[in-house]
Amino acid sequence: MSEKTPPRSRRRRLMPRRRGKPGTPPGTLTPNPQAPPPTIRVVAYGPTTHDEATLTSVAELRGWLTRPGSLWVDVAGLGDVDAIRQLGELFGLHPLALEDVVNTHQRPKLEQYGEHLFAVARMLHDQQSLESEQLALFVAPRFVVTFQERLDDDLAPVRERLRRPGSLVRERGTDYLAYAILDDVVDHYFPVLDRLGERLEGLEERITEGGGAELLHQIRDVKHDLQVVRRAAWPLRDLLNAALRETSAPVTAETRLYLRDCHDHTVQAMDLVETYREIANGLMDLYLSTMSYKTNEVMKVLALIATIFIPLTFVAGIYGMNFDPASSPWNMPELDAYWGYPLVLTAMAAVGATMVLYFKRRRWL
Amino acid sequence: MSEKTPPRSRRRRLMPRRRGKPGTPPGTLTPNPQAPPPTIRVVAYGPTTHDEATLTSVAELRGWLTRPGSLWVDVAGLGDVDAIRQLGELFGLHPLALEDVVNTHQRPKLEQYGEHLFAVARMLHDQQSLESEQLALFVAPRFVVTFQERLDDDLAPVRERLRRPGSLVRERGTDYLAYAILDDVVDHYFPVLDRLGERLEGLEERITEGGGAELLHQIRDVKHDLQVVRRAAWPLRDLLNAALRETSAPVTAETRLYLRDCHDHTVQAMDLVETYREIANGLMDLYLSTMSYKTNEVMKVLALIATIFIPLTFVAGIYGMNFDPASSPWNMPELDAYWGYPLVLTAMAAVGATMVLYFKRRRWL
Amino acid sequence: MSEKTPPRSRRRRLMPRRRGKPGTPPGTLTPNPQAPPPTIRVVAYGPTTHDEATLTSVAELRGWLTRPGSLWVDVAGLGDVDAIRQLGELFGLHPLALEDVVNTHQRPKLEQYGEHLFAVARMLHDQQSLESEQLALFVAPRFVVTFQERLDDDLAPVRERLRRPGSLVRERGTDYLAYAILDDVVDHYFPVLDRLGERLEGLEERITEGGGAELLHQIRDVKHDLQVVRRAAWPLRDLLNAALRETSAPVTAETRLYLRDCHDHTVQAMDLVETYREIANGLMDLYLSTMSYKTNEVMKVLALIATIFIPLTFVAGIYGMNFDPASSPWNMPELDAYWGYPLVLTAMAAVGATMVLYFKRRRWL
Amino acid sequence: MSEKTPPRSRRRRLMPRRRGKPGTPPGTLTPNPQAPPPTIRVVAYGPTTHDEATLTSVAELRGWLTRPGSLWVDVAGLGDVDAIRQLGELFGLHPLALEDVVNTHQRPKLEQYGEHLFAVARMLHDQQSLESEQLALFVAPRFVVTFQERLDDDLAPVRERLRRPGSLVRERGTDYLAYAILDDVVDHYFPVLDRLGERLEGLEERITEGGGAELLHQIRDVKHDLQVVRRAAWPLRDLLNAALRETSAPVTAETRLYLRDCHDHTVQAMDLVETYREIANGLMDLYLSTMSYKTNEVMKVLALIATIFIPLTFVAGIYGMNFDPASSPWNMPELDAYWGYPLVLTAMAAVGATMVLYFKRRRWL
Amino acid sequence: MSEKTPPRSRRRRLMPRRRGKPGTPPGTLTPNPQAPPPTIRVVAYGPTTHDEATLTSVAELRGWLTRPGSLWVDVAGLGDVDAIRQLGELFGLHPLALEDVVNTHQRPKLEQYGEHLFAVARMLHDQQSLESEQLALFVAPRFVVTFQERLDDDLAPVRERLRRPGSLVRERGTDYLAYAILDDVVDHYFPVLDRLGERLEGLEERITEGGGAELLHQIRDVKHDLQVVRRAAWPLRDLLNAALRETSAPVTAETRLYLRDCHDHTVQAMDLVETYREIANGLMDLYLSTMSYKTNEVMKVLALIATIFIPLTFVAGIYGMNFDPASSPWNMPELDAYWGYPLVLTAMAAVGATMVLYFKRRRWL
């Protein structure tokens, strides 16, 4: 019987904490000391042109602004608040939106600030534990600016597609690029969900085989991870809904078709999350009822054994009493009887057998 | 007492997995190596004409396009991505919709692409385990194109009706054919639900008769199957709702009456699903409380038996002590008393009877 | 202790089954071999005229069609599909609606077919088990046609009112007659609910008095019956809501006042159903916690008795050992001690009393 | 250990029953034999005038109708159906509304009948058990008619305010009086809720102190009373919402401000009800887990004691066997050994101590 | 084994009680004897001017009214009902709104009274127990009047920002000041939520380590605190939603951007509350299943030990019987057998070992 208190499979904080002291004025960019310094990847592209570079300072960006075609500025790492503020001034981004960029615990949302749209989405990273990273996205007719928390890149496929001449993303406007980025984010939810589905299948098997208390913790882990996906996907659906209804400049009718497709994928992801949550809850119940079934079975068998032997032991106890047959003819004359011992043994066997039969009849055994 | 860990009645994957690597551009048709090669069944029909054939290549279809009347192209088997792409070009189907055709884990939905409507529904197959197969449906004024995953045919009744001259489906447009196909899909939900209802009835009986732990797994199985039906029927209801509100070309007012009827059937199916889910949950509770009731009864009887004999055994133990009456007049003088043994036996019987009476009075026995 | 597996209070099918094979064309009237043959009761009425008859064939109806005033044709028994089809042709009823008439497992609903309204409601029959019967209702400006499954008549009060000259139902149009019929259906829900309420009260009392496992089944029965009422009343509310919003011909403004009243009654019935469901759930919990409380009490007392005697029996066992005092002065010299036996008895009594006191102190006894 | 089956704190009917046989025509006033005879209190008032009287017959009312200013007729006691019908004719009240007045189990609602508004609210009476009484209210530009079930008066404060010259209720129209009456009804919900809150606090304390099974019944009682409040307040909220949207004659814009305030109070009451329900559910859980915690503790200690002594008793049993050392050197030579007895006792002590230590180590003791 | 009844971590009233007797006319200001006397802090400000003072009487305020720019009057302490009434007259505040100011248990809400907006929000104070304090807020084009219950100031950061020349709050109108105050209130929710999150993390760890019954109470405490936050934040969201849709004078389009940001923060807070509630519920389940798992383990081991020894003790009891071998050759000849004793011991050992093996095989040990 395993004895250790069930180990938590991993430590994690329940929820990220909001930085920033209460009472700071709106639009204040509170620096996060742990955030890595920014790397700026810039792509200037059009149907026939494509140029990309990795910059280290915002100043180098200025030259790119005057190029023809569209521009995608991707900032990875939010450690340098000043750089972000300069970028905001360069592209005319609203201070409230910039505050949300730095404060990386936003829910996905879509907001209109003057002529540019501001969207927040969450990318999932499934390394040791499932974490979600904020992706902030500004879309204007001429440029897209994205802010990622870390350098490791989920957006590489989009960048790759931009390099291929003739690809749709080259031929369309910034709204399509923004769609491509969001679609890429949603696409990455599915491998995560697949892994969670596999873990649930594995857990079901182990519960049926009679696993221990650590399974309960693993179910809770999966449920926590599903929560993380849910918190990323649920408001993203609202975001895409809002984008579909958005009739202002940046979003064209044709891109809307693609956004609808992306919305569809998000709904599919949510569907999977809900299904998995139900399955996880079912596993919890299965685990508890399996465990209690097993315990009941054990206890019942043991109780039956005890019950059969206790009356027999009592009879043996009777004939172990030391009443003196010599003092009185009423004192345990059985002890001197010729067939005394065999009769008592037979009686015991009979009592035991009757009880076993009775228990069998009542289907207790 | 049965001992085996309860067997899972059958292995299944929790949810189908989405193929396609994250980051592939939208509209990419990822081939599924396990999908069977396509069989193309084509029907050209009108009030007075009817012609059908089974083709093996898309090229043969060209001749059919110029015929008068309406055309139904039914593709079963999605193993040949190129053929599907050619079909798409032939009929002007949107790449995003074609991607959904190949990616067979779509939720039922209705989408408008230019002049044609695109619908996805799910057919149920109740063989070893309940599975759902995707049916994709394009409706345009002149043609209907359907894509099924497998060759075995749920749509045979529709085909049969097309062969009968004078049937409504011959006399009306493609929108009515599309309705007939969807209605056929919904009609097939009911036998599945009937079988699930019968299984629930059987389970209720077996629980009441005191079945074992495998019942829990069977209830879970039924709940899983209800989930499958639910995932097929629930969004189908939304689809039909959307179709009822659809005022663009393909859907005529008269067909709308029929779609309302089909919508009604879907609601009825959903109703059954919800009722069965509630019944399944009730059975789960019934099973658990029946089991715990039984265990309680067993334990109570056993505990009572033990409790009656333990004090008696103690008394017998007392008179089994070896204190030497010879050493002292205080040492167990009872052992030499004339009525010692009978009195002790009587006392024991009295104690036992009192306890039994007491337990009966408190209704424990 | 009662032993029988708790009896199911009555057998019932979980849900009625839909007849009709998948794939039959819409509007097909599938005959139900168990349905009784139709009895046609016809009433022709107006403010000053009233005439009624029971017909046996549809042909006899023709003469009634030309009479002045309004006409109510009430068909009880759906066993003759041909007669229903003839009736449909006579009154111009839509085939889809007729299909619903025959297929008696419709949810209550209201549908507009051309110039007539088609409504389905469910009447409750509380004989051995609670069952619901379908009432189909066609309303046109000149006639009302109703279809009941059985002959025994819930609509007698309406018929009675039609016979009284000067009653509202005589003076108003067919819409008011339709209201009167629906109101009559709803009125019959309340005695059913009253009986269910009384059963719940009785169950509460019996649980508190400590009833057995059969109570659980009776609670389930009541819950099942509440479900039947709910499935009848819930969509009826929607039906009446739709009728209140209906602005087309048959429903006049004055009748709408009465429909609102009927809607109100339906809401009241739903309210009772919800309250009773909550009470039934509460009883379930009460039953389970009462039972587990009782078992706990029993087990605790028994465990305490056992626990007190087990150490004492051990002591008696010690002095029942046969070590030979003659072999060594260390071998059980107590057995020969002058106060040996009384001291041991006193010690045992002291240990027992201490344990009882200790258990009392900790409030275990 | 308390033994009595937990007493139900009081008997009550689960729900009031609807009188009136099914099938009675709408607008029929079914007399309730238990209802007290009506007392009619009439107040004629205006900014400068005020006159009140208690009448015993409807006929006396006629003289009051011609007075200038507004009129409030308050009927307490619904025992005289004829008087109510006469009142209805006098003021032109709709028969359907009058039926609801007499049938005192209406849900709160607001209905427009021609030029007068008809409202039903429920007043709470917290005497032995919490009961709700129906208040029916007709508002027309010149008069307010209220019907209460009983004479004991919750509306005294309104009557008092009407007596004070210069009070708002004197200066405004009948709509304000109607508001004042409804506000008074809602105001009386709060003392009831306060008492329920106090009972919940008391229950929490007693559960923590380890109360018995009667607490469960008391929690159920509180939950039942909360249900009564809920059923009174919830539809009242809808009623006030409807009144706020009501743009027809009786309700002026200024009164709407006050109705909004009253709506606010109702929402606050509902809020309290929901909070208390949650607390009551939490107490239920707390009670159950406290009880099961206690039982577990008891059982564990007892099981440990038994477990320690059972092996020791076995050892004592061994040396109580009567194998004859004289017959063979192998027969229990220990019994004659010089250190036999002390060694066995020591061994027993060692085994017992080891077990206690082991149990302590595993934190079972 | 810890024995004390689990201590309630702190006493608290379940819910604040509403003062004010039922039946008092609307707009009555009922004094609360425990409320502290008011301190009036006034700030007159404009883009270039700033002046502040702490007054002790309403009379001193008159001089400030004529100053140019905007005015913020902040009243802390509601002990002086007369002063509040005078303030109401000075600024033209509606009596119903003033009643809500004094009656400090309002739900957050936004109401329009003529030309000024009236808002109620709740500030959280996390001292010994989490409490919420009412903040009432009047906004008109020229002034903001706030009423706090206590003097200790959550609004200090806003006052501080007003002192800084060039800050946004100086340059914008009273609507922006109102926003700044509300935003400050919401900002203070997050440290509270962070502390609750930390407590939940701590609780999870202690449950896994096997804590006692007091954990249950602590989880309940956290859930109660979450309820307090929820009741503050949930209606605040509605308030801000209403403010966003408010198109009347005080709220400008630019301020609306900021209100949207504040709304966003409230949604984030609600999100955290919901997540924490789910986690707390999960902890409850974890606690209960951990506890029952532990008890099960203990009981199982103990039952196994008892079960192994009970049959052995029975055998020892057999050979402790005193049948006299001298009286008959059938009377316990084993006792005189040469290998009797060793054989019996061996048999016992064999039986014990078999049982242990059997239990191990069935994975009970």
Question: Care to describe what's here?
Answer:
The structure is a homopentamer of 365-residue chains. By secondary structure, chain A is an alpha+beta fold. Chain A is built from ten helices and seven strands. Chain A is rod-shaped, with a radius of gyration of 36 Å. Chain A has helices at 62-65, 81-91, 95-102, 156-163, 168-171, 174-187, 189-208, 214-245, 253-318, 340-361, and strands at residues 39-45, 50-55, 70-76, 109-113, 116-126, 130-139, 143-148. Chains in contact: A-B, A-E, B-C, C-D, D-E. The interface between C and D is large, with 71 and 66 residues.
Set down the secondary structure blueprint:
The structure is a homopentamer of 365-residue chains.
Chain A: E1 39-45, E2 50-55, H1 62-65, E3 70-76, H2 81-91, H3 95-102, E4 109-113, E5 116-126, E6 130-139, E7 143-148, H4 156-163, H5 168-171, H6 174-187, H7 189-208, H8 214-245, H9 253-318, H10 340-361
Parallel strand pairs in A: 3-7
Antiparallel strand pairs in A: 1-2, 1-3, 4-5, 5-6, 6-7
Mean pLDDT rating of chain A: 84
Instruction: Give the overall silhouette of chain A.
Output: rod-shaped
Give the ordered list of helices and strands of chain A: EEHEHHEEEEHHHHHHH
Number of strands of chain A: 7
Strand order of the largest sheet of chain A: 2-1-3-7-6-5-4
Number of helices of chain A: 10
Strand content of chain A: 5-15%
Give the end-to-end Cα distance of chain A, rounded to a whole number of Å: 24 Å
What's the multimeric state?
homopentamer
Which radius of gyration of chain A do the C-alpha atoms yield?
Answer: 36 Å
Unreliable residue stretches of chain A: 1-11
For the biggest sheet of chain A, the summary is: 7 strands, mixed
Class from secondary-structure proportions of chain A: alpha+beta
Q: Biggest protein-protein interface?
A: D-E, 72 and 67 residues
Helical coverage of chain A, percent range:
40-55%
